[in-house]
Amino acid sequence: MKHAILPFLSLAALAVGQVTPPPIPGTPQIIQNGNFANGTTGWQSSPPGTIMNGMYCMNVPAGGSLGSNTSYLTTTYQFLETKNDVYTLNFTASSSVGYDILVQTPDPPLDPNLNMTAALTTSPYPFSMTFSPANQAPNTTLEFLLTGPPRAATVCIGNVSMKRIDRSAWRQDYGSAIKVNQLGYLPNGPKVATFVTTNIAPMNWTLYGNTGAVSASGRTRPRGLDIASSQTVATIDFSNFTTEGTGYTLSVDDSTSYPFSISSSLYESLRADSLRFFYQQRSGIAIDGNLVGSQYARAAGHVQIPPNQGDVAVPCQLVNESLIAYLEPWTCNYTLNVTQGWYDAGDQGKYVVNGGISVAQLMMVYERTLYTNTNVSSGLGDGSLRLPERNNGIPDILDEARWELEFMLKMQVPANSTRQLFNGSMVDMSGMAHHKMHDNQWTPLPTDPSQDPKRRELHRPSTAATLNLAAAAAMAARLFPAFDATFAARCLAAAETAYAAAKQNPAILAPGTDWDQGGGAYNDNDVSDEFYWAAAELYLTTSGQQYLDDLKANRYATANVSTLFSVPSGFSWGSVAALAQMDLATVPSNVSNHSAIVQSVLTAADMLVAVQQNSSNGYGVFLTTWPWGSNSNALNNVQVVATAASLATNSTAYRTAALAGIDYVLGRNALAQSYIRTYGTKNTQNVHSRLYAHELSDLVPQAPPGAMSGGANQAASDPPADDVLQGCAPMTCYVDDVNSYSTNEVAINWGSALTWVVSWAAGQ
Ligand SMILES: *[C@@H]1O[C@H](CO)[C@@H](O)[C@H](O)[C@H]1NC(C)=O
Ligand SMILES: *[C@@H]1O[C@H](CO)[C@@H](O)[C@H](O)[C@H]1NC(C)=O
Ligand SMILES: *[C@@H]1O[C@H](CO)[C@@H](O)[C@H](O)[C@H]1NC(C)=O
Ligand SMILES: *[C@@H]1O[C@H](CO)[C@@H](O)[C@H](O)[C@H]1NC(C)=O
Ligand SMILES: *[C@@H]1O[C@H](CO)[C@@H](O)[C@H](O)[C@H]1NC(C)=O
Ligand SMILES: *[C@@H]1O[C@H](CO)[C@@H](O)[C@H](O)[C@H]1NC(C)=O
Ligand SMILES: *[C@@H]1O[C@H](CO)[C@@H](O)[C@H](O)[C@H]1NC(C)=O
Ligand SMILES: *[C@@H]1O[C@H](CO)[C@@H](O)[C@H](O)[C@H]1NC(C)=O
Ligand SMILES: *[C@@H]1O[C@H](CO)[C@@H](O)[C@H](O)[C@H]1NC(C)=O
Ligand SMILES: *[C@@H]1O[C@H](CO)[C@@H](O)[C@H](O)[C@H]1NC(C)=O
Ligand SMILES: *[C@@H]1O[C@H](CO)[C@@H](O)[C@H](O)[C@H]1NC(C)=O
Ligand SMILES: CC(=O)N[C@H]1CO[C@H](CO)[C@@H](O)[C@@H]1O
Ligand SMILES: [Ca+2]
Ligand SMILES: [Ca+2]
């Protein structure tokens, strides 16, 4: 029995019990002539049947096994099933001999989206089955697989009805009109809230302590229209109030904020919890319930114990699949052991490109402690995190980073391997890194990683992945020598080999067409920034002249600041020049134009502070657009401003701006939404993740404390978003629904932005 379908089985159990799920109203009927009022139109069966008392009845011969199709009833027309939508199927059925049948919506060669058993009894029983398709199925049918009664049976089926979930009653929840950082504020930091009001005159605000006593009061500052939310707002600045405490609330008129703290240890638990997300995303190791809670304990994922097919000997894509991805039949003739690493996001694929920025940000958290007066042992050192490697003599944050690095190293194409197809030619790709590895089709939500039965496949090497490996491994090579010289040397060799291979093959790009067969594309047409980053990290580690020459010849060396730092949208997995620039500015080296590099960080930060202070920005967020995963873009901009604080003489201004920029993800936003699990009164509940799809199945938990959702997406598109977010203002394009992968997924590169920022803030 595959645990991958456990949630379905549990629903099937519901169906055969005396309980039916709550009714789902409305939406168009998918099944034509489901009550057989028009005879057998739209239906076909074996053996042929007749309509009796409004039901389609067949004399099914004895024998055969569940799921085989010698006897069946099926629709003759095809219909669409949308990936990650929710459907309910109702039907009434009886059999003169009690036995189990299988109900499917088949879509070969993919697994059926609906695959549930129904236990037939002699009296007609009303079945109701709710399911959420794993894969897009444009042309599926509904099939009752009737083979298998112990004796010949008369089976009757009637009132067949299937509809999409009806979300017409959904309303956006804007939360309290007074938007605060629901975790709270640092005593010596800025304390600003945003109040949604149509009143254009200043109003009185009051800060109450947890006993209800007045702690402070003042006047709001009307700000006019906040463009990104289409809300008229005023701000409340209570920065001067510094008394630590819990349960503070702000009030204006009859509006009251959610409670928050003022505490000098405000970000300490979030620093640790943000890293716990990475531990719980680990592949290839059992997750220890003693460390993170028994509800999160799980077996090692993808270690080739059935039903897993990976990740110990993973082949390249089959040519019929790669033809769709690359328009040519690429494959390879080796397998790789690519265990370990972190699952990328809500899925269980592993991507070198996205792994690169994520592991780099974790290493930057550590490296920062070497060059600022911050002590790694507070919060990040050995024994500080809930990891299996605590107390092994190595800083825990580096232990976590190493889990991903080990995976990335394994994704490198072996030396002297056979040439591989690219653009019609056979190319030597030795030393490059495979772009990604993942299932060959999507699995349902939830799926336990150890129970994923799909074929795992390596996808074509890419220049971008190769440079991500080079950059991340080069960083590791300078951070690990004190703890594990052998590992550091292995990283350096891999980084240099990868860099040389990328120069040999500078334009093997990951195409946008390589998506939706069980994984995302992570396509990127500009790899100059990846070259710039890899050269920078290799130079900082080795002082090699070749890397410095390449760095200076790279077009990013002379690019303007907004290009280098992706201002104002924020750097991201595909735009990584900012990572290079921040490391060149902060890690000691002999780079000749060091002061110009430092100045570029300060200039980028000034541009971001200007965005924050713009009169149309009522929330103090470092964004003007809301792309997919916008919370990470906002936090990556905080990283730039916070880095400026360590480089500037007027560091207080940058520090204040960066701290205020964090408030956005913790609730100072148009929806008063804390996007971080368990932090804040109105925090995200239903992240899109196969590990944490509690909304679909009680058998799995909600996401753990510190997991951050991607957040508002002005181009949101997924089944819930398409239904409920039409015409939304960018900052409000968010729906806390497990199926909203475009607004509510979790991802390692978003978690790493959070980790960097809150690790910095915890030290303020
Ligand atoms: C299924 O049956 C329930 C209970 O009668 C009803 O409320 C619901 O609307 C039905 N759904 C469909 C898709 O027919
Ligand atoms: C009934 O089925 C016939 C074909 O068998 C079709 O022509 C007709 O339109 C159907 N009527 C309804 C009401 O669906
Ligand atoms: C029955 O199953 C066989 C083998 O799986 C398949 O080739 C055939 O098309 C199926 N027939 C129907 C009517 O579904
Ligand atoms: C469908 O369900 C049957 C019965 O539980 C099971 O044997 C079969 O493996 C399932 N098929 C898939 C593709 O999961
Ligand atoms: C189908 O549903 C209708 C309306 O609820 C009901 O009157 C009828 O008895 C049902 N037919 C069967 C065969 O269950
Ligand atoms: C606002 O506060 C001021 C000073 O505390 C007070 O004089 C005034 O009456 C208040 N206004 C309102 C509308 O409560
Ligand atoms: C905070 O206090 C300082 C010094 O008393 C004062 O200049 C400033 O206006 C106050 N700021 C706010 C927002 O009240
Ligand atoms: C891959 O193909 C090359 C060239 O045909 C051959 O020499 C090599 O042995 C093959 N490797 C494997 C693992 O099959
Ligand atoms: C695969 O890699 C893991 C982790 O490095 C290792 O424990 C395991 O032995 C390897 N398996 C094989 C077959 O090489
Ligand atoms: C690759 O080939 C070179 C010669 O072409 C040889 O020196 C080297 O040992 C080979 N490396 C591996 C890992 O087989
Ligand atoms: C920091 O000081 C520089 C130089 O005086 C100035 O240009 C910049 O705007 C200041 N930045 C902030 C955030 O105040
Ligand atoms: C074979 C077949 O029925 N193909 C259809 C699948 O669905 C798409 C989109 O709905 C149709 O355009 C095809 O004709
Ligand atoms: Ca450790
Ligand atoms: Ca790029």
From TrEMBL:
Q: Where is the composition biased (Polar residues)?
A: 440-450
Protein's UniProt keywords contain Hydrolase: yes
Q: Where is the signal peptide?
A: 1-17
Residue ranges of every copy of the Cellulase Ig-like domain listed in the record: 174-257
Q: Which keywords are on file for this protein?
A: Carbohydrate metabolism, Cellulose degradation, Glycosidase, Hydrolase, Polysaccharide degradation, Signal
Any single GO molecular-function term of the entry would be: cellulase activity
Reactions it catalyzes: Endohydrolysis of (1->4)-beta-D-glucosidic linkages in cellulose, lichenin and cereal beta-D-glucans
Gene3D superfamilies given in the database record: 1.50.10.10, Galactose-binding domain-like, Immunoglobulins
Determine the domain of life of the protein's source.
Eukaryota
Region (Disordered) location: 437-456
Which major enzyme category is it? hydrolase
All residue ranges annotated as the Glycoside hydrolase family domain in the record:
267-758
- One record GO biological process: cellulose catabolic process
Name the InterPro entries on file. Answer: 6-hairpin_glycosidase_sf, 6hp_glycosidase-like_sf, Cellulase_Ig-like, Galactose-bd-like_sf, Glyco_hydro_9, Ig-like_fold, Ig_E-set
Q: Which SUPFAM superfamilies match?
A: E set domains, Galactose-binding domain-like, Six-hairpin glycosidases
Query: Pfam families recorded for this chain?
Result: CelD_N, Glyco_hydro_9
Task: List its EC numbers.
Answer: 3.2.1.4
> What's this protein's family per the entry?
Belongs to the glycosyl hydrolase 9 (cellulase E) family.
Annotated protein name in UniProt: cellulase
